[in-house]
Amino acid sequence: MISFILRRLMTLIPLLLGITMLAFILMSLAPGDFLTPVKAQRDVSVELIQAIESEFGLDQPWYIQYYKWLGNVLQGNLGHSWAYKLPVSELIGQRIWATFLLSFSSLIFSWMIAIPLGVLAAIYKDSIFDRISAGLAYAALSIPEFFLALILVFFAAQTGLFPLGGATSIDYEYMSFGGKLLDRAHHLILPTLALGIGSIASIMRIMRANFIDTIRGGFVITARSKGVRESVVMFKHVLRNAINPLISAFGFALSGLLSGALMVEIVLQYPGLGQLMYQSILREDQFVVLASVMLGCSMLVFGNLLADILLAWSDPRIRLERKN
Amino acid sequence: MTLFYIFREVFRRPLGIFSACVLGLLYMTAIFAGLLAPYQTNEQDLNRTYHPPTKVFWKDGGLHVEAYKLVDPSEARYELVEELSYPIELFARGYEYRLFGLIPLERHLFQVKDDIGPIYLLGSDSTGRDVFSRLIYGSQVSLFIGLIGIIITASLGFLVGGLSGYFGGRTDFLAMRLVEFMMAMPGLYLLLALRGALAPHFPSDQMFFVIVVILALIGWAGTARILRGMTLALRQNQYVMAAESMGQPPIAILLKHILPNLVSYLLVAATLSIPGYVLGEAALSFLGLGIQEPAASWGLMLSQAQDVKVFYLNFWWLLIPGFAIFITVIAYNILGDVLRDIVDPKMQTS
């Protein structure tokens, strides 16, 4: 198991190298650099600009820049953000929690709803409930996330029930601790809905299909013929077996945790990592882009790894080690 | 399984007929955009911003359209004028356009007679442009980006997947590492980065092709991986060995003996991945990074609906492009599912 995890984590190294290199090439293809707007600002001294230029080798071609950047990163220095005038690590540290909170709440929200719905749809297969939920799931899968977010904002503006965007109110700083929590939760509702509805649909469909497959199993007939109550058959025998494939889906959901919320964050002006990434690409805020790309990719790899580990843990038939 | 058989089966299923008809209608609208749209995409009318949709009704032996009067310009509030209405002329003369990009024409399906008033079937936007006309012209971008994109993706995927599956060895190893690399990147991040790098090198009216190329560059990896596996299995067949021993070049074997076996899979996979292109274009244009004004696309039109004014004053008609995207995506998803049921119900496509 440990060698498997180590091997998978080793693949992260060439991946991160390749991706950051690609990002460097792509950004050097775009005209101008992030110092162009900085140079135009009067409050930044010439010496500082020169110091930065030599520290990160901005006057040199991209491969030397890349080499220098890599050296800095290996020493734990992710560089500076120009737009925010902060070290990148600090900036990302601020934003990552907002995105994490949002993704996590939508993950919990969608799983709490999707699994019971999927089970019900499977138990009452071909009933009216099953058909309606299947149709709704189809619609939910086809609706673009950002359009859903837009409709929700529209709804919020018309009814005044929810804030139009952001993560906190203006007077957040002056609230009591409980008030702060409530305020955060209030701001989280719309983005959670926008992000969660699509995944409710997909998880529900997987759950329903798994459940129906499992009901056909021989052990279900055995359990029923023993005279076990139907509810016990369904929830104790079938559900436990049917939920297995969803565990890997959970890992995949984790892998998209930090990069999946981009469009929703932008529409709902939620100050998370996706919005930061989008703005820094527009402003050519190079080091922020690189750091968030690295973070997104690492999450992807970790999520997939976790999916495999969870699967092996829940299903002893799966062996992770290669057979020699 | 011939293509003809697949098409016949699609039209035997109610969902197949339904989705094929919806898509047919959408594409016909896109092709005949000039004929159907009463206005051009850039025809502004700053005196009639955020005009509400006008109803069409029958009066005095002809079609008429409601007339509105601007009451409060600051809130863009309009009031219906009961006694006034504008007659509609069918197949009337209007602005010049080229049907199919070739035939010069100036007839339009409907227009207000002598242009005495506006006809806004779906209202007007912040600069008084007709949402209905822009929706129709926008469909050209939003619908064809998927078709062109999927052709590039499928050919690239077949080329890489087929070659690496056929040759195996080092080619295969390198190609598959590249594929894994592509698949390990968060798609939207890559989309944004590629757009940032490529776009400044092209004029804004060529944006359509830049977006198609970017979307295809992102999408080919998954197709290549699956096609490689299928090629790997197919090349064990005796007819492939026969062709090899007769000295046919690999490209000919790939095209003549392997491709025909992949066609039905490609058809299903293509149908199910077109929505990704439609959504990708919409997302980019929505962010202002795709199709540029004054051209129209559904995503671009939706970005106008992000205005606080739109939210508070209930200009709901600006959200209609979103429903157009939704209908297109759902039609493709249904058609893809129907095709999969016909070709192979057990196929894994996700």
Question: How confident is the prediction overall: mean pLDDT of chain A?
Answer: 80
Note the total helix count of chain A.
15
Number of helices of chain B: 12
CATH fold title of the largest domain in chain A: MetI-like fold
Q: Give the N-terminus to C-terminus distance of chain B in angstroms.
A: 22 Å
What does this protein look like?
The complex is a heterodimer of chains A (324) and B (350). Chain A has 324 residues and is mostly helical. Chain A folds into two domains: 2-87, no CATH class; 89-318, MetI-like fold (Orthogonal Bundle), CATH 1.10.3720.10. Chain A contains 15 helices and two strands. A two-stranded antiparallel ribbon of chain A has the order 1-2. In chain A, β1 and β2 form a beta hairpin. In chain A, α6 (88-123) runs antiparallel to α7 (128-142), α6 packs across α9 and α6 packs parallel to α15. Chain A is globular, with a radius of gyration of 24 Å. By secondary structure, chain B is an alpha+beta fold. Chain B has two domains: 3-30 and 135-347, Orthogonal Bundle (MetI-like fold); 32-129, no CATH class. Helices cover 58% and strands 14% of the residues of chain B. Chain B has a four-stranded antiparallel β-sheet with strand order 1-2-3-4. In chain B, α5 (169-183) crosses α7 (207-234), α6 (187-198) crosses α7 (207-234) and α7 (207-234) runs antiparallel to α9 (250-286). Chain B is elongated and about 85 Å long. Chain B starts with a helix and ends in a 7-residue tail after the last helix. At the A-B interface, α2, α7, α8, α13 and α14 of A face α6, α9, α11 and α12 of B.
